[in-house]
Amino acid sequence: MPEPNDTEGTVALAFSGGLDTTVCVPLLKEEYGYDDVIGVTVDVGQPEEEFEEAEETAEALGLDNYVVDAKDEFADLCLDAVKANATYQGYPLGTALARPVIAEAILEVAEEQGCTALAHGCTGKGNDQLRFETVWRDSELNVHAPVRELGLTREWEQEYADEKDLPVEGGDGGRWSIDTNLWSRSVEGSELEDPAHVPGEEIYDWTETPGGKDAELVEIEFEQGEAVAVDGEEMDAVSLIGHLNDLAGAHGVGRTDTMEDRMLGLKVRENYEHPAATVLLAAHEALEGLVLTKEERSFKQGIDQEWAEKGYQGLVNAPLFRALEGFIDETQTRVTGTVTVKLQGGQARPVGRESPYACYAEGHASFNTEDVTDDIEQGDATGVAKYHGFQERLANKVSEAADAETANKAVSDDD
Ligand code: ARG
C-alpha cells in the first residue's frame, strides 16, 4: 500500500465502465487516499455500446470521464503491422497494439488535467498491465493497479459493487472478458477457460458462421506496403479496416481459437475475430511474394517475427522496434500493387497479384520458352545440377563406409 502523503491529488483511471474499472473508482479514494478520480476512455474502435456504458456508469458514479479519439493513430499502427506480417503464435495482434496507444492518450489527459497518478483495472495475471505500465512508468506520475495490488477477484468486486450500490450490470454481458478494437475482438473466460470446450456460435459477433455464402473477390491495393484502396476505392485506414471487417466477416473469415503463451508464462485459451486483419495480412504477403527477392523474403521473416514479439509486449517505443521498422520500410518501397483475394467459407485466399515492381518475367520461368534469357539457356543448368547436393551425397557415402568399417572391426574384435 502506498504512503498516504504519496496519494494526494487526482488520479486518472483507464475507464471502460466494466466491473473492474467501476470498483476502482471508490477504491482509489477510500483505500488509496486520493482526493479525486477522473476517468479516461480511449476510442480505438470499440462498438458504440461500450461508450454508452462508460458514459452511463460514469454519470451514475459522479465521475468526470474524458473520451479521447485515437482511432486514426491506432489504425496506422495496424497497417504498420501488415507491413510486418505481424502475428503472435498465429493470430493477428490486436489488444497488444492498442494498449500503448491507449496508455499514451491517458497519460496526455492526466498531464493536461494536472493529475498526480494513473491507474488501470488490469489483473496481475495478464499482459495488459505490462503494456500500460511500460508507457506510464516513463512519466513522473504514480502508477496503480488496484485489482492486482489489492488481490481482487471478480466475485469480490461484484459483492463490493452490490454493497456500495455501484452501477454495474450483471448477467450475460459480463460472462466473458471481451476486448474489442478496430483490428480484433478477443473473447476469454467463463466456459472458454476449458481448452476442450467447443465454443458455441454465440461467442462470435464480427463473423458469420463460415459457409453458405457464394464466393466473393476483393481487390486490395497497396502503396509501399500500405493498404490504400479496396476494389478501386481509396479509403483512409479506419474506413478501410472497418469496410474489410464487414465484407470478410460476412464470409466467416478471421476466426482463431488458440492456446496463447502470455508474457508472464501463463498459458491461456483465447478466441479472436479479425476479418480485416486476415485479409490484409494474406494479401500483403502475396504481394511481397511477387516483388521481394528470395533472400529478402527469408531474412524479413526473422525481422517480422521480432516486430510481432515487441508488439505483443507493448514495446513499440523500444530502440529495437524503430530499427526493425527501418528495415521493414526499406523493403516496402517496392511493395506496391494489387492483390485479389477470394473470400469463401471462412477463408481469405489470394488468387491474383500484380505490381510494376514484380521480380518476375513470364518468359524466364515459362514452360513455353526454350531459353531463360538471351544469354542463359536451359542447358546451362546441367553444371549446376551436377554440383547440386554434391557435399550431401559425399557426407552420406563417407558415413556409410565409416559405419561399415566400425561394424567390421567389432565383429573381428569379438573373434
Ligand atoms: N491475450 C490477448 C493479449 O494479451 C488478448 C487480451 C484481451 N484482454 C482482455 N481483457 N480480454 O493481447
Q: Care to give the gist of this entry?
A:
The chain is an alpha+beta fold. Helix content is 44%, strand content 21%.
Overall structural class, as computed from helix and strand content, comes to alpha+beta
Proportion of residues in extended strands: 15-25%
Strand order of the largest sheet: 3-2-1-6-7
Q: What is CATH's topology name of the largest domain?
A: Argininosuccinate synthetase, chain A, domain 2
Number of strands: 18
EC number: 6.3.4.5
Main location: cytoplasm
Binding site for L-aspartate: 123, 127-128
Catalytic activity: L-citrulline + L-aspartate + ATP = 2-(N(omega)-L-arginino)succinate + AMP + diphosphate + H(+)
Descriptive overview:
- This protein has 415 residues and is an alpha+beta fold.
- The protein has two domains: 4-179, HUPs (Rossmann fold, 3-Layer(aba) Sandwich); 183-362, Alpha-Beta Complex (Argininosuccinate synthetase, chain A, domain 2), CATH 3.90.1260.
- Helix content is 44%, strand content 21%.
- It is built from 14 helices and 18 strands.
- The chain has helices at 19-30, 48-61, 71-83, 95-112, 128-136, 146-149, 154-164, 237-249, 275-291, 294-313, 319-332, 362-365, 381-387, 390-414; strands at 10-14, 36-43, 64-69, 87-88, 91-92, 117-119, 142-144, 177-180, 185-188, 216-223, 226-230, 233-234, 255-261, 267-273, 337-344, 347-354, 371-373, 376-377.
- Strands 3-2-1-6-7 form a five-stranded parallel β-sheet, sandwiched between helices.
- Helix 1 crosses helix 7 and helix 8 crosses helix 9 (275-291).
- The longest helix has 25 residues, at 390-414.
- It is globular.
- The mean pLDDT is 95.
- Bound molecules: arginine.
- Arginine binds at residues 95-96, 127-128, 177, 179, 186, 188, 260, 270.
- Arginine binds next to helix 4, strand 8 and strand 9.
